[in-house]
């Protein structure tokens, strides 16, 4: 399963899918007043978590591997470690909870060093929710979207949408946006979700090294 999101001219959309195509009854589409091209500000961890638990989880088979990136609203921690903005009492409570010995006379800077030295593995709320329902979350490394087949599907959906929004001089409103976006989603078959299909469309890059180039490199060395 792959998660992705996009702002479509004043509307915010989240879709998801697997080898069978987009998952029915698990869409999130709402209007936004933001004029910014950066749609991330329209989504928050609370809204994403509610959608994840109430709309996505009930519509996927068990067990599922859920692939997602590390957007901030995907990555709310179950417990956030103290930082320089925390007061001394908060830091001490954290250390006490995790059985890290400290001296009450320590300065805040010293206490923070103890926090860093005894750092716990990050645990994300979304991952815990998925685990509780028998699923698992796989997080992509930063800047490696090529490992997520939804990028191919999403790009084609957006291309169709951009070419057809406002066609035939139809009044531009929320209903028209939803109609065209729904149509764009329906155009792509399950085969577009398979990793094999994605790499079939990636043309191999072959660099031919001539004899003269090799000799030149050798001379330079």
TrEMBL record:
Specify the Tc1-like transposase DDE domain's residue ranges: 86-163
Gene3D superfamilies linked? Ribonuclease H-like superfamily/Ribonuclease H (3.30.420.10)
The record's annotation in InterPro entries points to: RNaseH_sf, Tc1-like_DDE_dom
Which terms in the Gene Ontology molecular function aspect does this entry carry? nucleic acid binding
Origin superkingdom: Eukaryota
- Pfam families xref list: DDE_3
Q: What is this protein called?
A: Tc1-like transposase DDE domain-containing protein
């Amino acid at each position: 399963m792959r998660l992705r999101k996009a702002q479509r001219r004043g509307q915010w959309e989240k879709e998801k899918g697997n080898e069978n195509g987009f998952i029915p009854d698990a869409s999130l589409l709402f209007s936004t007043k933001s004029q910014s091209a950066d749609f991330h500000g329209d989504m928050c961890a609370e809204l994403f978590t509610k959608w994840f638990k109430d709309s996505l989880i009930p519509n996927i088979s068990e067990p599922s591997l859920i692939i997602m990136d590390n957007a901030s609203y995907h990555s709310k921690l179950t417990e956030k470690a103290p930082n320089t903005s925390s007061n001394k009492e908060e830091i001490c409570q954290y250390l006490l909870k995790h059985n890290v010995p400290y001296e009450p006379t320590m300065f805040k800077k010293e206490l923070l060093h103890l926090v860093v030295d005894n750092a716990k593995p990050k645990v994300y709320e979304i991952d815990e929710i998925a685990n509780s329902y028998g699923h698992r979350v796989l997080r992509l490394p930063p800047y490696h979207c090529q490992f997520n087949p939804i990028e191919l599907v999403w790009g084609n959906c957006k291309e169709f949408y951009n070419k057809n929004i406002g066609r035939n001089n139809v009044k531009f409103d929320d209903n028209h946006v939803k109609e065209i976006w729904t149509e764009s989603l329906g155009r792509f078959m399950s085969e577009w979700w398979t990793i094999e299909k994605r790499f079939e469309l990636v043309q191999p890059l072959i660099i031919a090294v001539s004899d003269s180039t090799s000799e030149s490199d050798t001379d330079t060395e």
